[in-house]
Design brief:
Elements lengths: L9 E6 L5 H12 L3 E5 H8 L9 H15 L3 E6 L3 H15 L3 E7 L2 H8 L10 H7 L11 E5 L4 H12 L10
Parallel strand pairs: 1-3, 1-4, 2-3, 4-5
Helix pairs in contact: 1-7, 3-4
């Protein structure tokens, strides 16, 4: 088992495109402050390595190393991405095994029609169409063993961030009303 400072936690946020993963991760950082590392599958896969999402791709190992490095250096770590079980399942299982009760997984369950609506507001909406988005969509692509807390589409951003912060065992004030 990997030795990490006892207070560090791994939070895995998974779900389809436009399910709210990045928004939840940003909300966690905003409410928690310093001490949370954000590891984005898209950043490492698309921006750093510029590779396709395929089984055995180099980004899988890079994600694993980045998460472990952050945890081992005292950061709560939020890993967010689609992270298909077929491609990332073994890597995620290794993290869950090594970090045990310090690891918590959440799956943001958003129906396809809602992902389409949310996707329309994203900068890539002009370059990624409905057919491509549909090809990426996997309904309830859950990790085996019931290790993920499924968060329904109706959960507000504030409620979801609060639920994850509760798992971290921290109390942070909710954002001030606009």
């Amino acid at each position: 088992m990997t030795t990490v400072p006892s207070p560090t936690r791994l939070i895995v946020l998974r779900g389809n495109s436009a399910s709210g993963k990045s928004s939840v991760a940003a909300g966690l950082r905003e409410r928690y402050g310093r001490g949370i590392a954000l590891v984005s599958q898209d950043t490492l896969r698309r921006d750093v390595l510029r590779e396709r999402d395929v089984p055995g791709a180099a980004n899988i190992g890079l994600i694993d190393l980045t998460v472990r490095h952050a945890l081992e250096h005292g950061f709560h770590t939020v890993l967010e991405g689609i992270l298909y079980v077929a491609h990332y399942g073994d890597m995620l299982a290794g993290l869950l095994t090594d970090y045990g009760d310090r690891a918590h997984c959440f799956y943001l369950d958003v129906p396809f029609e809602e992902t389409l609506s949310r996707h329309a507001t994203k900068p890539i909406a002009d370059t990624v169409g409905k057919d491509e988005l549909r090809s990426w969509y996997r309904a309830l692509d859950l990790l085996p063993g019931g290790v993920e807390t499924v968060i329904p589409a109706g959960s507000t951003l504030d409620a979801t961030v609060g639920q994850v912060l509760d798992v971290l065992g921290v109390r942070c004030a909710p954002p001030a009303p606009p």
